[in-house]
Amino acid sequence: MNNKPQIKKSNRPSRQSTTKKVGKGNACPLYKKCGGCQLQNMTYDEQLSFKQAKTIKYLGRFGHVEEIIGMDEPYHYRNKVQAAFGTTRGGKIISGVYQSSSHNIVMVDECMLEDKIADKIITDIRKMLPRWKLTAYNEDTGKGFLRHVLVKRGFCTGEVMVVLVTGTNIFPAKKEFLRALLKSHEEITTVVWNINPSKTSLVLGNREEVLFGSGYIEDILCGKRFRISAKSFYQINPVQTEKLYSTAIEFAGLTGKETVLDAYCGIGTIGLVALDKAKRVIGVELNSDAVRDAKMNSKINSAENIRFFCADAGKFMVGMAEEKEKVDVVFMDPPRAGSDIPFLKSIATLKPERVVYVSCNVETQARDLAYLCKSGYKVKKIQPVDMFPHTNHVETVVLLNRK
Ligand code: SAH
Questions:
Q1: pTM confidence score
Q2: Rounded mean pLDDT of the chain?
Q3: Quick one: which of 395, 364, 363 has its CA closest to 382?
């Protein structure tokens, strides 16, 4: 078994631009301050080797790690951009990202990972504020107006959502501000006002008002149409997501006869794509906004034989195990913390033939795989995918078969 962290030519992005060192002072002036691109001091090829080695370090003990799937053009891939707003001591409004492990804002006008249109909208909003005497929110005093701006863009559809997150429920000069924003950016298809008065590190609050358009955008992924609202999770790198999902669905070995569970399903993307090759799909997700979107996505894609439930995946699985439901394939795509014992235990009870585990955290994935390997499963395939170029994150797809 060759588990050396080497990248064969085939998965190596072909463009010359990707082999240059992007860091070391020749690319992003904010490299050190921002901390978002931990691997910028490496060429893209070196980054891929680093991620291959990281995957082998954590998952190599379960089996052979396939060569990581890299990105051809690893720039401006983020379809969702979020900026925090604040004021300097000199009274100037700034917008950007929080400096790593702090709440100091690093001013960002352009980022090589982020969508260029989204960056431009955010910068223009910042410049527009003083015209209506609109201020930035102050975290310490709880006073001031604009806390964050969130922009989501459908790369396939071109639809753009702008979410204005404010600390107060008063929006001075709302109509005039909106009119000016829409005039300067005709590509914006919807604007949502989110009110977040709490002392919290969460960006979005509970109250929302749609100021323009439908309150959501749509995008196309793997040939399916998806509705995305302000709060629901949608993969931030759609180009690589198509590769990730294709790998996951190929691993599942669907023949059209299977009952499939899509656990931690978000807005139902994996399940809806898998449905073409399965008999029926059940999706479970904790976030109620995402479940509402998932149900709507089934309608948009005229999908039958798919149902979505809003529940904790672990509790839901325990319920399924108690009801002795039959499941042939489980897709699981938990958040960074990984899955939990009730969920993993229920897999052992439900005994699906195959489990396809998609993860954004190899450490928690390794922990969960160890559990599954002790409960009747064997790891068959491990495929890393580079979903987040220039950062140290690696996404992995693992296929487990029942022994
Ligand atoms: N599979 C989806 C979403 C993956 S992100 C996609 O590819 O787009 C992980 C998802 O797990 C998020 O939508 C999050 O809301 C959800 N989640 C987090 N904890 C959960 C839990 N305990 N039970 C069910 N879903 C959960």
A1: 0.89
A2: 92
A3: 395
Question: From atom 6 of ligand 1, which residue's Cα is the shortest distance away?
Answer: 266
Stretch 293-311: mean pLDDT:
96
pLDDT tens, position by position, 230-264: 988 889 999 999 999 999 999 999 999 999 999 99
Q: CB of 388 closer than 6 A to ligand 1?
A: no
C-alpha 107/C-alpha 398 separation (Å) is 39
Q: Which atom of ligand 1 is nearest to the CA of 262?
A: 1
pLDDT of 344 above 50 = yes
Which spans in 100-237 are helix H? 116-128, 174-184
For residues 31 and 201, give the distance between their C-alpha atoms in angstroms, rounded to a whole number. 23
Tell me, yes or no, if 37 is annotated catalytic.
no
Which mutation among 79, 219, 264, 281 tests ligand 1's pocket best, with the greatest number of atoms within 8 A of CB?
264
- Per-residue pLDDT of 65-97, as tens digits, reads 999 999 999 999 999 999 999 999 999 999 999
Q: What is the mean pLDDT of residues 315-331?
A: 94
Q: How far is the centre of ligand 1, averaged over its atoms, from the C-alpha of 282 (Å)? A: 14
Say how far apart CA 221 and CA 184 lie, in whole Å.
29
State the distance from the centre of ligand 1 to the C-alpha of 78, rounded, in angstroms. Answer: 19
3-state helix, strand, coil in the chain (%, to 5): 30, 25, 40
What is residue 233's predicted lDDT score, i.e. its pLDDT? 83
User: Can you spell out the DSSP letters for 205-221?
Assistant: -SEEEEEETTSEEEEEE
What's the CA-to-centroid distance between 31 and ligand 1, angstroms? 30
HEC string of 382-403 equals EEEECCCCCCCCCEEEEEEEEC
| Ligand 1 pocket check for 290: Cβ under 6 Å | yes
Q: Check residue 402 and give its pLDDT.
A: 97
Sequence letter at residue 61: R
Query: Which domains does the chain carry?
Result: 80-221 (2.40.50.1070), 237-402 (3.40.50.150)
